[in-house]
Amino acid sequence: MVGSPRRLAILSEETVQRGAASEEDNPYWELEEPPPHPDPARGCIRRGLCCKSSPGWFAPGEVERAAALVGLSPDAFVRAYVVIDQVEIEGQRVEAFVPVKVGRDGLPLHQPGTRVDRLYRMLRSPCIFYDGQGCRIYPARPIECRRYVCTQAPEDNLSHEEIGRMWLSGTVPSE
Ligand code: SF4
Q1: Rounded CA gap, 140 and 130, in Å?
Q2: What does the alpha-carbon distance between residue 126 and residue 120 come to, in Å, rounded to a whole number?
Q3: Residue 20 in contact with residue 27, Cβ under 8 Å?
Q4: pTM given for the model
């Protein structure tokens, strides 16, 4: 079960002034190289590397499923754990729900329930649902998480444009 929402994190004044633009300036960036995959042929072995850097995007209908899993209304779930990101498709801005990233203190890096900005997108940081061992909403995790395998070629993973097209058409994945 997901813990209760906590107050928002605020970047230090020094970090804001520097823009948190480089690896050294970004307090949430993991400087250590992750260990190599022990056997790439096995694909995802749930090391959590993607969960620790970039939460996956939800498709239409999936926030409702995840909210039900943790016993919240979709509205309360989004306002507690989810931000709104966007992708441009043929000149059109398409928005999607994404779990919010958290800082080293475990607090959201951006106000849940609102649209993110460029600085937030640049920060690599853990997903609010990653507990250090696995995903707290695993049975209802976003489609990008379900389809992503770090050992496969980037073109074999779902792109944000592909997920954006699902939002454009209102497609709800059948799996
Ligand atoms: S929703 Fe779950 S699987 Fe997806 S990034 Fe977050 S912790 Fe990982």
Answers
A1: 13
A2: 12
A3: yes
A4: 0.79
